[in-house]
Every structure is written in C-alpha cells, then in structure tokens.
Design a protein that fits this description.
There is one protein chain. With 528 residues, this protein is an alpha+beta fold. It has 9 helices and 32 strands. The strands form 9 sheets. Strands 3, 4, 9, 10, 11, 15, 16 and 21 form an 8-stranded antiparallel β-sheet that branches. The longest helix has 24 residues.
Amino acid sequence: MTNSLFLKKLTFALVCVALFVGCDSDYSDVGADIIDADIHHDFLHYEANVAAYDASTGAVQTNNLPLNSLGVYNNPVFGKTIAHFVSQVELSSANPTLTDPVIDSVYLYVPYFSTYEETDTSGNNIYSLDSVYGNTDARFRLRVYENNYYLRSANPGSDDDATQRYYSDQRDLIENNRGTVVLNNNSDVSQNEEFSVSEEEIKRTYGEDATVAEKFSPGIFMYLDNNFFQTKVLDGGANLLNNNVFKEYFRGIYFQVEQIGDEAVLAVPRFGEGTITIKYNDIKLDINGDAVIEDGEIQRESKKITLNLSGNTVNFYENTFTTPYSDAITTSDEVNGDDRLYIKGGVGSMGVINILSDEDIAQLQAERILVNEANLVFHVDKDAMANVREPMRVYLYDLTNETVLYDYTIDGTSNSFNPKYGKYIYGGLLSYDDSNRGDYYKLRITNHINNIINNDSTNVKLGLVVTENINVVSNATLKNSFTTGETEVEKLPVSSVTHPFGTVLYGSNSNVPEDKRLKLEIFYTKPN
C-alpha cells in the first residue's frame, strides 16, 4: 500500500514537471488554421520582403496528358494558342472474324465534359458544357488525317530506356508523316470546314425519314471516309491479330486545326473516351463457322468494329504571343523582383519566388517565434486583366525539388461536389471584389515557414503556376531546362500544362504600390 501511494505521488510529480517544462518551451498554436485574413488581433505581425519574377517555360512535354485541348484560344493579354491533337487507336476486340466484310458507315465520337439538365417537351435532352473557352458560336476548320508516325512508349536512345517524351512544338513530326486523305470528308460542313463546339444532343440517324438510331451527349461527332476504313481495317487481315501489331500498322489519327478569320473557341474533349465505330455487313456464320444459306442464298448480317482512341497521345500548341507578354517574360529582375508577374498555362510562364532573406530568418529565430499563420497574397492587376477571364486557381510548390510543399500535403480538406476546390486551406483560389472581379490569390504556407525558422528546413525557391486541377501534382518535362540562381528547372506541373488561362499579378518590386506589393505576411506568437 505504501509503495503504491509513493508511485502515485511520484507519477503526479513527474507529470507536473513535464507540464511546467512544456509551458516554458512550447508555443500556442491557436489560430494556425485561421481562414479569415482579418482575424489576427491576438498575434504579432511581421512582413518579410520577397523577390518574385516570371520566367518563360518554353516548349513542354505534352504526351499522355490527363486532359487535352482542341481548337483556338485567343487571349488579348497573352496571345493566341491553336491546339492540335494526335492519338493512337486500338481495337476494342482484337482479331475479329471477317469473311467478306462490306462497310456501311464509319463515325467518330468524342464526348465533351457536359452535365444533363433536363428533357424538353419534344423529348430532347438538354445539356450544359464545361471546359469550353472562348466564343461558343465561333467555328474553326477541323481536318482528321491518318497519322503515319509511330508514337513510341519507350525511348530506346536513352541511357535508361526511359519513357519517350514528345513536346508541344513537335507537330512537324506528324505533319510530315500524315496521310493525304481528309478522313472527315462528309458534305456536312459542320463536321469539318466549319466545325463548332455545340451543347446540343447528338442524334445519329438513318434512312430518308432520318430515323434516330442513337443519341449521344454533346461531343465531336463526324462521319469518316468509308473507303479508307474498308481498306485499312476491314481488309487489314493479319494486322488485326492483336493491338501491338495493329498500332504498328495503323498508327493513329491526327486532328488538325485551322482558325477561320478571328474566330476562336477551344474545347477540352474527353479523348480518352473517344471511339471510331465501323458499321459493316458480313456473311452470317453458323456455330461451325460455315456460311448460313437460306433459300439457296448466302445470308449476311450487320456487325461493327470499335476502335478506341487509346494508347499514346500528344497535344501540340501553336502559339503567337503578344509583344508585351514576350517582352515581360524575357526581362526579369531576379534581385528586386518584377513589377508584374505573368503567369500562363500551356506553353507559357511561371513565377519564381525567393522568400525569407538570411536577415529575416536570423531575426525571427532570435525571437524564438512560432508561426501561427504565414501567407503570400498575390494581387491581380485588374487593369491588365480587364475583360479577360482569370484562372480559378494558382498553385505554389517547391521549385528547387519540383515537389509539393508540406502545407499542401497535410491539408486534407476536400470538396466532393467539385474536387478542384479541395485543399482550400492551403488556398490559391481566386477571391473576388465587390464588383465580382478577380482580386487576389492567397496561399497559406504556415508550416513551411515555421519549419525554416524553427526546424532548420531548407529555404527553397518557390514556383507559382496556374492550375487546372489542384489534385494533380505530377510533372511534365521542359524541352529546354533553365537556371534561376543556383536552381535548374527541368519540369513543370502537369496541371499548368493542361490549363489555357493566364493572369497578371503585381510583383515584389518597390515600384509596385504598397497595398498591392507581394509580401510574406507572418502572424506569430512568442514564448512566455
């Protein structure tokens, strides 16, 4: 009993000592996840100067992207982008039984991102489109060709037999090796010479009375050349044995875009769900593989072969930049930072940010602070972005190591309705002013800054890009790397490559008005 009482007293004493020591050495972490930027009255405030400037990315790897664009996008700030696309095709079922096939029709269908809204009184399904940019009434010439250039998966010329990379500026590889026959040569000009992005439901019809055979949600729909597919596929023989042989034999299709006048519209079709359907009739066979004969005549039946737009793909971007944008991304002040940061997706530009000078770190370490919140706030240049659609989000990452920041990793917030709005504590979402104009982007890097000050983490360079999807953090390789300071930049986030938008932000140079200038805001507490 005595020993038990002694142990209890000893345990109590040790706990008290631990609590006393903890109170002397630990800091209050209350408010570390505060979202409202105005609620900081309990914290001390420190503003650290940063140096931020923009850098051109140049051509970038665009094979096998998660999203691909097609069409023309014209941005008065950054210039014009024409997006072309090439894809391999695969047999949905290899080695089909073909006896005496005669083609009936061939059509291609690639769905858009769309949402069903309702069905009208005539039985037509009504949809709304997503991921379509520009004037939806605009048209462009769309020609589909056979691709005769083999898109490799591996690069046999590399030391480690690495994955083959294709870049945004390598369209000549396809142009110099494409077929001569325009495959979408239907008399309906809306399928080729005057192609438009429509939100209307697609109806495939047949017969003189236009009986509806199938309905599709909005997408690219076009009839393709019968003679080509009769020869290439139905008469392909042993080339249809399996998809390895087939992809060497039929190397894919190429979507070539040409602008009509000044019209511009760009879509993000769901190419991965695209198909080519070949309708044909063939001799009907019995269970033994013999022709079925009725009344002395060999019977025929309708069949189909489906080709999937799968395998290797490449998006090509043809850019014509404006003079102000070209000048901006070729002249940067790496010491004091730029007046403006031009951040553009696709083949574009990024922001490079140096935070926390050695003097800042030394001062904050001497005060033994705990960072409760640290923000970078990028203000939009509303004059430069007048009448231009801003990107929904920007993405800040570790440029030195080309990876995510710790604050991104530990942010488990999500949005089940729209996943692109996840990681909302980490931030980067566009905030709007009272006139519903884009105002600023805020990024919270509390733990990153705290680790630099208190845990001797490396003060790395940060990169800022626009993003199509905050959840995609993989990288694409730049065709030509560039060096900023001692950091060699070899890669770019894929989510920036797939995004056509750009924005102009106020930078860190002293010429920028104080209330718009980029700074690192640190709200902190000190030990008792």
